Amino acid sequence: MVDKHPTYSIVVEMENAQFIDWDEIGVGLTALAREIAVVSSTGFARPKVVISHAGQNADTSSLQSRIEAEAPQLTQLAEVTFTACPSGRYYELKNHGVRLAEGKIVVFMDSDTVPQQGWLSALLAPFHDAEPICVNGHTYLSYDDFFSRTFALIWFFPMAQGDERFASKRAINANNVAFRRDWIASHPFPAHNGFKVSCTLLMHQLWREGHKIVNVDARAYHYSPRGWRFFCWRALVTGRDADRKFVALHAPNRSQRIAKSFSRWGTMSWRTTRRVISHASQTGMPPWQIPFSLAVGLAFYTLAFFGQFSLAARLVRDEIETVPDFVGHS
Question: Which of 91, 140, 222, 268 would bridge with 189, disulfide CB 3.0–4.6 Å?
């Protein structure tokens, strides 16, 4: 059965209102309004946009006023709803937003991503057919200086261009993905101590049920991480999350987990070396900066190794990961 214009909602995860960088968020929400206008002109019904934030209910009115000021087009083109999930973590905000979503499709976007031309049309198009359950977009890091270029090269997102092989293997982007609402409502992002583990677990759940993830060229850029504090913390968390994923998907014993930390260190070091050398020129990085970029990348995954090894060897406890106050906006 063909449904040319399925109804849809968009869930936007948003940080606590008092820590929002409005220079960035205004750009993303304005781009979202543009994308809604494009698909609405082709016959899609007016969508519902759910802003799911981690503040208190009392924060909602000021948040609403600020969004109306930053992206007035959004409230004209969509029904904008706000919901508070006090102290909610990343995936909790997404699950919380789904409860208010309406229509047949739920699209996920983050407050620090910026949709590009054709983003929403590309995500919705496969749902014209009845079979697809999950449609995954292409998120990449933006860059404008040495460190943001380095992050774009070593990060787990594919590059914007010239990275087709990596892009074809990309996992679910929780900040750029759409699901049939009845499926995601009954299969929420799993609760987990990890920082960015739940999307991997959900992806494997899709596969176990025999669903194919449809990858499309729905492009959005994510602002680059910033600061050395974030760099160090995120590297350690990346390692701990790697151990958590290994445990969740393979249930290994402790010696296997420790061995995995060493093998992953080697794999990621080689991957980093290959990607920096192969793709640095397309970011506009001068040749003399490439060795320094490589050193930064290898330092990141060396820290990740220590994070993974320390959790596997029980040198640290498996606690719930939250962004510490000293890290700041990322």
Answer: 91
Reading the block at residue 104, the tokens are: 């047949």
> Quick one: pLDDT band at residue 330, thresholds 50, 70, 90?
very low
Matching residue, tokens 């890091």: 141
Residue 125's identity, in one-letter code, is: A
**C-alpha to C-alpha distances, 75 to 6, 82, 168, nearest whole angstrom:** 21, 12, 35
Contacts of 70 (CB under 8 A, 6+ apart): 22, 25, 26, 29, 30
pLDDT, tens only, 173-211: 999 999 999 999 999 999 999 999 999 999 999 999 999
Topology of domain 8-222 in CATH is Spore Coat Polysaccharide Biosynthesis Protein SpsA; Chain A (3.90.550)
Query: The pTM is what?
Result: 0.94
CA 48 to chain centroid, in Å, comes to 21
* Domain ranges (residues) in the chain: 8-222, 228-312
